[in-house]
Design brief:
heterodimer; A: alpha/beta; Rossmann fold; six-stranded mixed β-sheet; B: 391 residues; mainly alpha; ABC transporter involved in vitamin B12 uptake, BtuC; two-stranded antiparallel ribbon; 15 helices; 7 strands
Chain lengths: 237, 391
């Protein structure tokens, strides 16, 4: 396994407030890696820095061996990192189809885009039924499916998912996590943020536990699931 | 809820071209041939001249050209521009500089429409159109580059400033660091006639100029519709909906917004050159802030984002402002023996219309279907929720 994404000692601040102090992590090709941690631990900030929405004050991010920190967000999409952001941020007033088409904005291979469209609609048959519907009128779960699908339409090597289960009914949470496994099987590497640590650790290969902007623990997901500290702090046992 | 397709919002390209050509040809035939025809009953002739004189139609068309440009910035990309008049002024002065005797100490001719012995710069009208368009596009980019990072309200403020500064520079341009760039309040007269091969179109060739303005407006409609359907159009719409999400899809925000500014400004340049030939001169006091608002009102009242709505808005507002109110006042006064100055109620009327529109038809005369959805979103949502509750 080769490492696809390498984050080395990044520090990220919003003005004077430092949100991420010292985070290093590695994502290998074909893995699902999850970042878990409480509110304000710096998970989303880390993700946003990787996808170029924020610039790190110090530290390095390399993707496929090339430095990408400081590269603007829209160029990072072209490199093969797609981000399904927190709060979904789908284009509410556009149809589901238009949303998906915008996900493939940078791609010129029409045949590839069409086949990816079929692929995501197979992953989420519900979206197929609603393809011409205005995205903002769908339920929260459907909108989340759309956010993930839209990111997949960019044909990413690495998919960044920010809280895909937030605010969803338990049945849908299960369904989303099943789909995440499926997406990995189809060859996309995934970096996943979750507050639902239990579910995340079940689906992930490895995990990093963030606390106040630092990596507190890391290791195989299966090991962390048995770790007393983790179960007490995040899994509520 | 019924599935409602909301993607195809514009007429197909071929259909509009046919309709537009027919309408344009009819207008041209009426004003060029039917109106001067001796057999025409006197009443009709006078009626047309009172209610819809040729000059008013031409002026409306110039407004159409510019409103279509502003529509790209405001309607498509969702950037509020309160200083669009600046591009009109720059386009106008391009015509003034390159198509008149203003630079009397020079003697440059390039397929111009006047004799070679005349001093000044005389470049062919069609080339000046393109020059004016590109100079404006350049200014659009220059203004946009440092300011487009601003969020909506702040951007509007900066454009407002720009729209004030440029006309003022021309207004006081008699001594611009020692150079006379605009002849100040005296303006630049006379702008060369338009050469169309067989003849030159002077001040009174309204019919032929009408045809030319119809053509220019058609170019803008074509550009608007083509861009709208293409990749750039989709990027604009995405930015209008959600900037951050758009950039996450790989839409380069700065470049896309700058493109909208450049295309919009280009149209302003076309309009400026066209207007200069329409009034045969460039007059600094014409370029004031009210024009920016006037153009914005055309876009908003007509239907932001919808080319046909914007055209309708431009025609209606420019007609009411220029002819309609005066003609109505004359008829009203002579009918009832009153002496009311209706033209002075222009702003009252516009204010009233704007308020009524915002109350009852926020999306404009001919709304873009997507925008209609946006503005009626709350009602739609509550309606569908009510339906659900019933079940």
């Amino acid at each position: 396994m080769t490492s696809l994404l390498e984050v080395k000692n990044i520090e990220v601040a919003y003005g004077k407030i430092v949100a991420v102090k010292d985070v290093s992590l590695t994502v290998n090709e074909g893995e699902i890696v999850t970042l878990i941690g409480s509110n304000g631990a710096g998970k989303s900030t880390t993700l946003r820095t990787i996808s170029g929405l924020l610039k790190p004050k110090s530290g390095e991010i390399t993707f496929k061996g090339d430095r990408i920190d400081g590269t603007p967000g829209h160029e990072i999409v072209g490199l093969g990192i797609c981000h399904a952001p927190e709060g979904r941020r789908i284009f509410q007033r556009m149809s589901v189809r238009e949303n998906l088409e915008l996900g493939a904005f940078l791609r010129n291979d029409k045949a590839g885009v069409d086949s990816d469209m079929d692929r995501v609609l197979d992953l989420f048959p519900r979206l197929k039924e609603r393809i011409e519907q205005r995205a903002g009128t769908m339920s929260g779960g459907e909108q989340q499916m759309l956010a993930v699908s839209r990111a997949l339409m960019g044909s990413p090597k690495l998919l960044l998912l920010d809280e895909p289960s937030m605010g969803l009914a338990p049945v849908l949470v299960e369904m989303i996590f099943d789909t995440i496994s499926k997406i990995r099987q189809q060859g996309t590497t995934i970096l996943l943020i979750e507050q639902n640590a239990m579910a995340a650790l079940e689906v992930a290969d490895r995990a990093y536990v963030l606390e106040s902007g630092k990596v507190k623990l890391s290791g195989k997901a299966a090991d962390l699931r048995k770790n007393d500290e983790i179960t007490k702090a995040y899994l509520g046992h | 809820m019924a599935k409602r397709p909301i993607s195809n919002v514009t007429l197909s390209n071929r259909k509009w071209a046919l309709g537009y050509t027919i309408a344009g040809a009819l207008l041209f035939l009426i004003y060029q041939f039917l109106l001067p025809w001796n057999g025409l009953p006197d009443g009709i002739y006078r009626g047309v001249y009172q209610w819809m004189p040729p000059a008013a139609v031409n002026e409306s068309l110039v407004y159409v050209i510019m409103a279509l440009g502003l529509n790209i910035v405001v309607g498509y990309a969702g950037l509020l521009d309160l200083g669009y008049v600046a591009f009109w002024a720059i386009g106008g002065y391009c015509a003034g500089w390159f198509m008149s005797e203003f630079f009397y100490f020079l003697n440059i001719h390039f397929f111009g429409s006047v004799g070679l012995d005349r001093p000044g710069i005389h470049i062919n009208f069609w080339m000046v159109l393109i020059i004016g368009g590109f100079v404006c596009a350049l200014f659009g980019v220059l203004i946009g580059a440092p300011t487009l990072r601003l969020k909506s309200d702040y951007l509007a403020l900066v454009t407002l400033g720009f729209g004030e500064i440029i006309p003022q520079v021309f207004f006081n341009g008699e001594n611009f660091f020692g150079f006379n760039i605009s002849n100040g309040t005296k303006g630049i007269v006379i702008v060369d006639p338009i050469p169309v091969g067989v003849k030159n179109l002077g001040p009174f060739d309204f019919g032929w100029k009408l045809l030319i303005f119809i053509l220019l407006a058609a170019v803008m409609v074509f550009i608007s519709l083509r861009l709208r359907r293409g990749r750039l159009g989709r990027a604009w719409l995405a930015i209008r909906e959600d900037e951050l999400a758009a950039s996450m899809m790989g839409v380069p925000l700065m470049r896309t917004k700058l493109a909208s500014y450049a295309v919009g400004a280009f149209a302003g340049g076309l309009g400026g050159v066209a207007f200069a030939t329409h009034v045969n001169g460039v007059y600094a006091e014409r370029f004031n802030f009210a024009i920016s608002i006037f153009l914005l009102a055309m876009v908003v009242l007509g239907g932001m984002g919808n080319v046909w709505g914007v055209i309708l808005g431009a025609f209606v507002l420019s007609w009411v402002n220029g002819t309609g109110l005066v003609a109505f006042g004359k008829t009203f006064n002579s009918q009832f023996g009153t002496n009311i100055d209706f033209a002075s109620f222009t702003f009252l009327l516009f204010g009233l219309v704007l308020i009524l529109m915002m109350l009852f038809r926020r999306e404009g005369f001919l709304p873009e279907s997507r925008l209609k959805l946006v503005l009626n979103e709350d009602e739609l949502d509550t309606a569908s929720e009510a339906k659900k509750a019933k079940k």
